[in-house]
Amino acid sequence: MGGEENAKGMLTPYRILDLTNERGYICGQLLGDLGADVIKIEKPEGDPGRSMGPFFNDIPDPEKSLYWFAFNTNKRGIMVYPFFTPREIMELSQLRFRNYWAEVDHPELETSITYPGSFFKTSEAFAMEYRRAPLIGEHNEEVYINELGLSKEELLTLKQARVI
Fold this sequence. Notes:
The protein is α/β, with parallel strands linked by helices. It folds into 3 domains: 4-79, no CATH class; 84-133, no CATH class; 134-164, no CATH class. The protein is 26% helix and 16% strand. The protein is built from 6 helices and 5 strands. It has helices spanning 25-33, 66-71, 86-90, 93-97, 140-147, 152-160, and strands spanning 15-18, 37-42, 75-79, 101-106, 111-116. It is extended, with a radius of gyration of 23 Å. The N and C termini lie far apart (49 Å).
């Protein structure tokens, strides 16, 4: 990058760990473009995005993926061996001690499911309410009528026209 090593950007003071897959590559790239020190974390076999073509000189090689090149500029990269299985993470005493896990009711499944909880803890009074992901259209009336001001008739018209 000829002479750009000392360039400063808006995000120069920040370091970002990029754990994304192909859906998030561009996020890390944009943060790097703005000056953040973005470190791409890969498994020992490399990121699956490295196997995505096209390839330089049409030679499939994880070090020659033009797709990889395009979306991973302005990043550094390190390799990390995974050392916990999902089950082992669920059983970590540190996370249990922090009350990290949250049980979320799923009445539609007639059970509850354990989710990761808040990513931070504070001494301030802070109560996080965990809700399950919404069912399809579950909050239509709440949002369209109560928040956007549509009438029940307008909502019905939109439903019948298959707009919502």
